[in-house]
UniProtKB/TrEMBL annotation:
SUPFAM superfamilies: Nucleic acid-binding proteins. It comes from the Bacteria. This is S1 motif domain-containing protein. Residues 17-86 form the S1 motif domain. It comes from Streptomyces atratus. InterPro entries: NA-bd_OB-fold, S1_domain. GO terms for molecular function: nucleic acid binding.
Length: 122
């Protein structure tokens, strides 16, 4: 964990939808939780299972995978940046339907600062 001041600084520099390159560092329970990503900011990145392929967990990025992610939302209590894969091969098959159903405001949030009004969360 970083200090509260550092956490505030990190959030102030990032935007929803911003693409950031990261390295998958842990896949604790393939098909059940998600993947943890080192995004080089001193705070943890995480991709939730709901955003990863459901048909074949073999399509999940494995430890050591370096790829691009988009900033999806922020879990303030855990000082964690939630990510979504930029590469469609690592993204759930029904992402457009998922967004329409659970996060319809996503397109309007892209480019906005992480701090400020909190987006809806699935």
């Amino acid at each position: 964990m970083v200090t509260e001041a550092e956490w505030e600084r990190v959030q102030g520099e990032l935007r929803f939808g911003q693409v950031i390159t990261g390295t998958v560092v842990r896949v604790p329970k393939p098909g059940a939780i998600g993947v943890f990503v080192d995004i080089g900011l001193g705070v943890e990145g995480f991709v939730d299972v709901v955003l990863l392929p459901r048909r074949r967990i073999e399509d999940w990025p494995v430890e050591g995978t370096v790829t691009d992610f988009e900033i999806w939302w922020v879990h303030t209590g855990h000082q964690q940046i939630r990510l979504k894969p930029s590469d469609p091969k690592y993204l759930c098959e029904d992402f457009a339907d998922f967004v329409a159903r659970y996060r319809p405001t996503w397109p309007s949030e892209i480019g906005k600062a992480l701090r400020g009004p909190k987006p809806s969360t699935p």
